[in-house]
Structure formats: C-alpha cells, structure tokens
C-alpha cells in the first residue's frame, strides 16, 4: 500500500516540505512505498520577499525540473475544501475541468498568507494597489510605468504607501529609484501608519538607521494616522487630511490562508493554526501546518515563528521530515529556531541587518548590509536546480541565522565575492 503525503502550496514552506519528506524516504530506502504530491495553482516558486523590486514578472522560479528530479508529483489546481475526518481534499484544477477528491495519509498545509484589506476603509478594495502576489506586483509595475504618459501633476508624482512595517518600508525606500526610472523626475513618497513609531514591529534598534535612510531618500512619514478612504485621485486620512495621489499602495497586515478555517483547532490573531512542537495540528489527525499557516513556537521564551521567508524555509523542512517520519515509524524532530535576524532593504541608501527578537540590535548597515541583502534575495532563498543537491540540503537540522549572518558579514566585509557564494551554498539550506 502506497503512503501519500500531500502538500498544499508551492511557496518556500511547501517546496521544502516536499524535499525534506522525499529526502528522509530516500534515506530509509522506502521510495516505492510513498507518493509525494504538491498541489498549487502553478509549479512555480514566487519570490515573494522580492516583490517590492522592479521587473516583477521575472521574480518566479520554475519548479518543474526540480520536482521531476526529486520524484515529487505536482497537480495544478486550487484546494477548495479539506476534510480532516475523511483525510481527503477537494481540488479544482487550474485547467477548469471538474474538481476531484484526493486522499492523503499526511497533509501539510503550507498555502501561505494574503494581505488584509479592511472593508471599513472606503474604496480600498477598488482603488489600492498592493504587492502581496505576483499578479498584484505586476499590476502595480504596469501602473507605475504608465504614469509618465500622463501630464505632470501632484497626483501623478505622489505615491502613498499605507503601512510602515517591513514591506512598506522596503517598498517606500525602493520607489524613488523606480519612479525615476519611469521618468518621474521628482517623485513624492509618503509612508503612512496608524502606529506612532516607524516600523513598530521591528523595534527601536534599527529605527534610527531606517529614519536616516528614509530622510536621505526623501521619503516622508505620517505616523499615528489612519486611512479613512481611497479613491482614484487621492487618500483621505482619519484626521480629515487629504493627499492627492493616483497611486495608493496597501501593505498593512496579512492573514493566513483561508484553508486554516477548515481544520479544527485554535488559531492565533493571524488565523494561523496552533501546532505542537512537531508542527502537527493537535485536533486534526494526520495534518501538519507549515510556513505562514502555522503558529509555531520558535524557542523556549515564547517567541513564535514570524510570517517570513526566514522561518518558512525551516518550518517546511521540519514539517516534511515529520510527515514522513511518522509514516516510517521514525523519531520526530522538534521545530526550533531561537536565533532571529532581519535584513531590511533600504533602497539606494543600503540596508540594515539587526539581530534579536526583542531589542533587534543593529549588526551592520549601509553598503555592506546591502550586499548581504542582495545575496539573500538573489542566491540564498532560491532552491538548487538539481534534485540530488536539493535533497542533500533538505535536512531539518540547519545552521542558525546568527551563524549565517556572522559568516556573510565577515566574508563580504573583506569583499570576497566568491567566498561569500560558498558560504551561501554551505549555510542557506
């Protein structure tokens, strides 16, 4: 009898869940007894952490060759329903044909998250852009490119970024350069947030660096200000102030995939399923959650994994390993990721690397941090092309991010590019 491990989602957590499960199965010499199946709309890994950049259409990584080499099956479709008691899922194929039911022995929910668009904000659904998905990032880019064809005006040359968190800051810092490339000579970028502090979730450590960078780039801030309404010609704040703009971009908040609602068990404020140390959903036999779908404790001090690529990569490895290990009768591995480092892109000014869950002390900033960020974005987060290499790097036991950043800072600090790539290859997976 074949055991079937089904993974919903082809993001970072989904890809590494599949690879990690396959790796353990191969090590156990049980390949003939297992089928690993990934279900997602397309066999591509969208480089979501990079969607604030230009050339959005290029920010995808095709997975066909990797899945074929690693003996991972793929179904192009959207999961409409999960039936935990029956251990089946209903899938609507992307081709538009009739939906089908798939039975599983283990299910890993790794379908990611989506931006929250509050219904209470008038016009938000109709008139705001976002960079939450590849399609929305491409739509924004087409709009930015079209601005130069319109007569110069305050509305044309002003962009309002709604949300001064990680995504909003990275986008706002990149926008002056992007708009200038589209022949908007003196763009006005305004970053708005209801929080009184810039990058509230990032803590006070990197804030002076972020402030310095945004000042140098000419990015304005309006903090402690809510959005009341958005229309094609402007944004109205809750204070009554109106900002003339043809471009409002929403980056404020995300929630886990709607599929978490179909699995019994408690969820957190982001709709993530609470999981045990092995990433299993306690109230649903045979179901694990990973990536942005999992509310997983990252350490023994009460810190939960963030909805980030850094945590999705490791969550995926652990979920896939444990799904296979249970079926093989092997010992499970606890998820643990006590070290946390954030690397924030600050556009042409540079970047900032800060470490720690609470204080987030700045480790490096400026040009050196920018080179590290570029290496992460263009090398570190991409899976290997070959199946054998990918399976070898799919172990749930990985070097922590403290070691990674220390190595990268040391190598890039002396300008050894080739050595830096070697470090990335050694540590990234």
Automatic annotation (TrEMBL):
Q: GO: which molecular function terms?
A: NADH dehydrogenase activity
Q: Which InterPro entries match?
A: FAD/NAD-bd_sf, FAD/NAD-binding_dom, NDH-2
Is Flavoprotein tagged as a keyword? Answer: yes
- Pfam families recorded: Pyr_redox_2
UniProt-recorded name of the protein: FAD/NAD(P)-binding domain-containing protein
Q: Which family does it belong to?
A: Belongs to the NADH dehydrogenase family.
Q: What stretch or stretches form a coiled coil here?
A: none
- Domain FAD/NAD(P)-binding: residue ranges: 4-314
Q: Which organism is it from?
A: Aspergillus taichungensis
Ribonucleoprotein as a keyword? Answer: no
> What PANTHER family does the record tag this protein with?
NADH DEHYDROGENASE, NADH DEHYDROGENASE-LIKE PROTEIN RV1812C
- What keywords does the record list, in alphabetical order? FAD, Flavoprotein, NAD, Oxidoreductase
């Amino acid at each position: 009898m074949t055991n079937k491990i089904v993974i919903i989602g082809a993001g970072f957590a989904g890809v590494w869940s599949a690879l990690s499960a396959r790796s353990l199965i191969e090590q156990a010499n049980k390949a003939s007894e297992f089928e690993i199946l990934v279900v997602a709309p397309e066999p591509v890994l969208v480089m979501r952490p990079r969607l604030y950049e230009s050339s959005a259409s290029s920010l995808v990584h095709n997975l066909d060759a990797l899945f074929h080499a690693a003996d991972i099956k793929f179904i192009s479709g959207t999961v409409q329903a999960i039936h935990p008691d029956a251990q089946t899922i209903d899938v609507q194929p992307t081709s538009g044909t009739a939906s089908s039911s798939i039975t599983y022995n283990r299910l890993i929910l790794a379908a990611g998250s989506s931006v929250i668009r509050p219904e209470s904000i008038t016009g938000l659904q109709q008139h705001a852009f976002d960079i939450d998905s590849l399609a929305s990032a491409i739509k924004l880019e087409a709009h930015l490119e079209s601005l130069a064809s319109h007569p110069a005006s305050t509305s044309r040359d002003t962009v309002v970024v709604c949300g001064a968190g990680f995504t909003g800051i990275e986008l706002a810092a990149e926008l002056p350069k992007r708009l200038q490339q589209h022949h908007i000579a003196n763009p006005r970028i305004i970053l708005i947030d209801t929080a009184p502090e810039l990058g509230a979730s990032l803590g006070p450590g990197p804030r002076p660096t972020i402030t310095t960078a945004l000042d140098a780039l000419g990015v304005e801030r309006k903090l402690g200000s809510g959005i009341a309404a958005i229309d094609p010609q402007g944004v109205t704040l809750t204070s009554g102030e109106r900002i003339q703009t043809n471009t409002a971009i929403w980056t404020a908040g995300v929630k886990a995939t709607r599929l978490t609602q179909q699995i019994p068990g408690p969820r957190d404020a982001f709709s993530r399923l609470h999981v045990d140390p092995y990433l299993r959903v306690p109230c649903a036999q045979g179901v694990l959650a990973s990536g942005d779908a999992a509310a997983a404790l990252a350490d023994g001090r009460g810190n939960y994994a963030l909805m980030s690529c850094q945590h999705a990569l490791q969550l995926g490895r652990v979920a896939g390993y444990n799904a296979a290990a249970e079926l093989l009768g092997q010992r499970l591995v606890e998820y643990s990721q006590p070290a946390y480092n954030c690397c924030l892109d600050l556009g042409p000014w540079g970047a900032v690397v800060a470490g720690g869950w609470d204080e987030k002390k700045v480790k490096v900033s400026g040009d050196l941090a920018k080179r590290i960020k570029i290496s992460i974005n263009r090398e570190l987060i991409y899976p290997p092309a070959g199946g054998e290499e990918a399976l070898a790097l799919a172990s749930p036991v990985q070097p922590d991010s403290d070691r990674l950043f220390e190595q990268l800072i040391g190598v890039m600090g002396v300008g050894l590019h080739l050595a830096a790539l070697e470090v990335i290859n050694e540590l990234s997976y």
